[in-house]
Write a structure and sequence with these properties.
The chain has 420 residues and is an alpha/beta fold. The chain has two domains: 197 residues, 3-Deoxy-D-manno-octulosonic-acid transferase, N-terminal domain (Rossmann fold); 190 residues, Glycogen Phosphorylase B (Rossmann fold, 3-Layer(aba) Sandwich), CATH 3.40.50. It contains 19 helices and 14 strands. The strands form two sheets. Strands 3-2-1-4-5-6-7 form a seven-stranded parallel sheet, with helices on both faces. The protein has a seven-stranded parallel sheet with strand order 10-11-9-8-12-13-14, with helices on both faces. Helix 3 links the parallel strand 1 and strand 2. Helix 7 packs parallel to helix 9. The two termini are 30 Å apart. The mean pLDDT is 93.
């Protein structure tokens, strides 16, 4: 009965979803494309046998990339169906497609759209990345006997408590075929939520190698920068304003270093550029660079491009971790470690709790009580070459020591496909 009521509610709010997509398409045109796919309506004829991977947004798509590569190595004739929920995820996902693959929007979680999606593609297996729990979709896969797993699965204490307060969610977790947890703590929480945990395989993001050409270019640009470069990586709303206010109040914080801000969400690039100007600074945007950033000046650099985090980490002497200075749970620090970029993180890393703790223990990351403390520590570290070099090497070793999740996850998925 709860699932039916939920399905009716999702059907009733369809007009709100369409309006939301139309609004978002103003800033991100991708949201205005192929809209009917979200309601299970397609132009191509029905097909079957797909290996379906759902990666909602940019981070999940990048994690999915290493798993998809491992699956292709084990199933050379695999046909990939890649679904997303955000425009950034879909744009990133196009790079993972090969001939014969398909890409589509995730169906809206109501019976009609989900049923049409499954009838259209009839997947051999479905893989939901990290935290994606959709009750109607999961129930329909169980009914149609489509094996459905939650890969690279994580669940914070906060999310667990929220799930336990919603009676529908434990049923959804319990209807999964399997969950492959990142850590033992995630596994324990997932079991509490009702999920059938079938393995603790580690974090797929450790298996993602930085793009070598980007990393080399960033390092060359750093050598030519003329002064240390401090990166605010994957910054979130509220964090950039706080940093810029500090820099405006104390110009000495900027006088001997170059600040580079890379917002987490591309729809905020213009907003952050405006914030920089409001505080009296010039802004130099990556999209305007030709052969590298401009010569040292008092401008704040803005990383307004997608898919270039390896370049930004190569360019930086050290990075402040976005999302960790507001109660947002932090962002992925694994890529920074793999690039040999030391990380300073704030108190809020609950979405990546174990990775943050392990990085701190390994010496690849340092924790600050707040953003002001992180800025003070960053200025100390840029003057200490030996400490930065030690942290960079610790990051590389930390990233290398935790690889292998892609192979373990791919082996488990292939076993499910062959058993079916």
């Amino acid at each position: 009965m709860l699932l039916r009521l939920y399905g009716w509610l999702m059907w009733l709010v369809q007009p709100l979803l369409r309006r939301k997509l139309a609004r978002r398409a103003v800033a991100e045109p991708g949201y205005g494309q192929w809209v009917e796919e979200r309601f299970g309506r397609y132009t191509q004829p029905p097909s079957n046998g797909w290996v379906w991977v759902h990666a909602v947004s940019l981070g999940e798509t990048r994690a999915a990339a290493v798993l998809i590569a491992a699956l292709r190595a084990r199933m050379p004739g695999m046909r990939l169906l890649l679904t997303h929920g955000t425009a950034t995820g879909r744009a990133e996902g196009t790079r993972l497609l090969r001939g014969g693959d398909l890409q589509a929007w995730q169906p809206w979680d109501m019976p009609g759209a989900v049923d049409r999606f499954l009838a259209q593609f009839r997947p051999a297996v479905g893989i939901l990345m990290e935290t994606e729990i959709w009750p109607t979709l999961i129930a329909a896969c169980a009914r149609e006997r489509v094996p459905l797993v939650l890969a690279n699965a994580r669940l914070s204490d906060k999310s667990l408590q929220g799930a336990l307060r919603v009676p529908l969610l434990p049923h959804a977790y319990g209807a999964l075929t399997a969950a492959y947890a990142q850590t033992e703590d995630d596994a324990a929480r997932l079991r509490q939520a009702g999920a059938p945990v079938a393995g603790v395989f580690g974090n797929l993001k450790f298996d993602a190698a930085p793009e070598a050409a980007q990393l080399a270019r960033g390092r060359a640009w750093r050598a030519a920068a003329g002064r240390p470069v401090l990166l605010f990586a994957s910054s979130r709303e509220g964090e950039e304003a706080a940093l810029l206010a500090m820099l405006a109040a104390d110009r000495a914080l900027q006088s001997k270093v170059q600040w580079l801000i890379v917002p987490r969400h591309p729809q905020r690039f213009d907003e952050v550029a405006a914030l920089v100007r409001q505080q009296g600074f010039e802004v130099s945007r990556r999209s305007a660079w030709a052969d590298g950033p401009p010569a040292p000046q008092q401008a704040i650099w803005l990383g307004d491009s997608l898919g270039e985090m390896a370049l930004y980490y190569g360019l930086a002497d050290l990075a402040l971790l976005g999302g960790s200075f507001e109660p947002l749970g932090g962002q992925n620090l694994i890529e920074a470690a793999a690039c040999g970029c030391p990380v300073l993180m704030g108190p809020h890393t609950f979405n990546f709790a174990e990775a943050a703790s392990l990085a701190e223990a390994a010496g690849a990351a340092l924790r600050a009580a707040d953003l002001a403390a992180a800025v003070r520590l960053a200025r100390q570290l840029v003057a200490d070459d030996a400490a930065r070099a030690s942290a960079a090497q610790a990051g590389l070793a930390f990233a290398a020591a935790h690889r292998g999740a892609a192979a373990r996850t791919a082996d488990a998925v292939v076993a499910l496909v062959r058993a079916g």
